Amino acid sequence: MNMSEKKAFKRESIMQTALELFSLNGFHKTTIPDIAKKLHISVGSFYNYFTSKDFLAQEIIKYTSEALGEKIRVVNMTDASAQDKIQQIVTIYFTMAEEKPEMIDYFLRVYLSNREVFSENCEGMVCVAGFITEIMIFFDDCVESGELRNQDFFSAFGLFMGYLGGMVFLKGEGVLPKDIELYIDDISRNIYCALKVQE
User: Fold this and answer.
1) How far is CA 146 from CA 90, 108, 142, in A?
2) CB-based contacts of 74: which residues, under 8 Å, 6+ apart?
3) What is the average per-residue pLDDT within 56-81?
4) What CATH homologous superfamily does 1-51 map to?
5) 0.70 cut: is pTM over it?
């Protein structure tokens, strides 16, 4: 592993550790010394990678958005129907909530709840562009194919993410009576029925 690969690996390790601590303890209660201690590095070493906790938080949301966006990009590149694509996206989101809950938790509990941290350099949807762009492409393609209704993007996005975020929130609170994967078919069908062209 060369020097730049080592630095990239260390940077990603810091983001992953911070992601877990922010999701577990909250953004404001987690300190840079907490992150450094968990990684067995000095606080000074931390600053070689990130200039501040706010900057780290912004880089994490970009990182999680890109990770989710890459998975949805694969779906967008298929010739599947809108209904099948919705099912695949719901599966991706719920699988990530199961396998990497800190990523979804970070978005719901840190990014959406601490907007002041993301006001500089993350205006609007800049820091979640990796994910948002792929969802926009999904909607545009499905409207163009005549499968989904043409409507304001944020109305459609809010409905889609409301279902997904709501279910993940209920899972996190421990109130879902079944495993979240068992809701994929129903949630996918509900989203499709709400967005499809009405006959």
Assistant:
1) 21, 32, 6
2) none
3) 94
4) Homeodomain-like (1.10.10.60)
5) yes
Which residue stretches of the chain are H helix?
3-25, 32-39, 43-47, 53-76, 82-99, 101-105, 129-144, 153-172, 184-195
Q: For residue 53, which of 6, 9, 4, 14 has the smallest C-alpha distance?
A: 14
* pLDDT level of residue 37 (50, 70, 90 thresholds): very high
Tens digits of per-residue pLDDT, 114-173? Answer: 888 888 888 778 889 999 999 999 999 999 999 999 999 999 999 999 999 899 889 888
List, by residue range, all CATH 1.10.10.60 domains of the chain.
1-51
Residues β-bridged to residue 196: 148
How is domain 58-195 classified at the CATH fold level? Tetracycline Repressor; domain 2 (1.10.357)
